[in-house]
Amino acid sequence: MDVIKQIQQAIVYIEDHLLEPFHLQSLSDYVGLSPYHLDQSFKMIVGQSPTEYARARRMTLAAKEIISGSSRLVDVAKKYNYTNTNEFANDFSDFHGVSPIQVNTKRDELKMQARLYIKLTTTEKPPNAYRLEDTQGISLVGYAQFVDSDDLENPFKVPDFLEDLLNEGKIIELQRYNDISPHDLFVVNCPLDEGMEIFVGVPSERYPAHLESRFLPERQYAKFNLQGELDYVVNEAWYYIETSLQMTLPYERNSLYVEIYPFDISFDDPFTKVQLWMPVDQEQYLTDDY
């Protein structure tokens, strides 16, 4: 139930600070989730990111004030922290598709966002199967990429990084260093205080100087076998986990999680087989850098 409570707290915080500039890091600090897991959990449960929700609510309240005629446009712009009326009008038009001076004649076209509340529902959809498995520690070598908290909303962070490595021939290179089992491509997503690290690597007993190294400690994981398009398969699994499993699966929301891919990844294959490992204990992610 913790994640439901935290997302509800996030909504309350956003509602209480609509007249202030929105910062994902501040919201993250308030609810006690890393920026990455907050952004991901919020999107999976609410259907939009915290930034998108905050903007939609501000634009909705601004539209209501303009419709009521209780405030001048310049005062509304100032109230919502815009430096001038033109800046506000441009943002308003970009969001609603209607300019501020058109709101009274085109009210039906306004994209009004009601304040959201979280509730639990039941479903007849069968659950995704997973197994709990104790896994020995694994030494990895590979490439790391830091993602700033401002960029966490991109749902294609991992596929984009994999595609870059594939195009640069680095996945083939990593395969040559995969000299111990399991013989797969590991993607480790590790939340940090101001963003996250994506590490793509392979199990190896060699540590070449040009590659970074990480160590996954021995721990228990909930392991999901997934199949689908590489760009979407993990996000779809996350949606199921956040909306259906968060009460029964004691996974750590501020910890790393692991994705396992085949070396012959294809962005055109709708049946790519992927594993998702969710940690269910208190072990820490060990790295040379942290």
Task: Write structural notes for this entry.
It contains nine helices and nine strands. The chain is α+β, with helices and mostly antiparallel strands. α5 (73-79) packs across α6. The longest helix is centred in the first third of the chain and has 19 residues, at 50-68. It has a nine-stranded antiparallel β-sheet with strand order 1-6-8-7-3-4-2-5-9. A hairpin with a 2-residue loop joins β3 (185-192) and β4 (195-203). The chain has two domains: 2-109, Homeodomain-like (Arc Repressor Mutant, subunit A, Orthogonal Bundle), CATH 1.10.10; 130-287, Multidrug-efflux Transporter 1 Regulator Bmrr, Chain A (Alpha-Beta Barrel). It starts with a helix and ends with a strand.
Features:
disordered C terminus, transcription, alpha+beta, single chain, DNA-binding, sequence-specific DNA binding, Multidrug-efflux Transporter 1 Regulator Bmrr, Chain A, 2 domains, Cass2, AraC family transcriptional regulator, Arc Repressor Mutant, subunit A
**Overall outline:** elongated
Poorly predicted segments: 282-290
User: Can you summarize the main beta sheet?
Assistant: 9 strands, antiparallel
Using only C-alpha atoms, the radius of gyration works out to: 22 Å
Under the CATH scheme, which architecture of the largest domain would be assigned? Answer: Alpha-Beta Barrel
Q: Structural class of the secondary elements?
A: alpha+beta
How big a fraction of the residues is strand? Answer: 15-25%
- Give the helix proportion (percent range): 25-40%
Elements, N to C (H/E):
HHHHHHEEHHEEEEHEEE
Please give the number of β-strands: 9
Order of strands, main sheet, comes to 1-6-8-7-3-4-2-5-9
Given this structure, which CATH class of the largest domain is correct? Alpha Beta
Mean pLDDT: 87
Structurally, the number of domains stands at: 2
| Span between termini | 30 Å
Name the CATH homologous superfamily of the largest domain: Regulatory factor, effector binding domain
CATH topology of the largest domain: Multidrug-efflux Transporter 1 Regulator Bmrr, Chain A
Pfam families: Cass2 (PF14526), HTH_18 (PF12833)
Domain HTH araC/xylS-type: 8-106
Keywords: DNA-binding, Transcription, Transcription regulation
Organism: Staphylococcus shinii
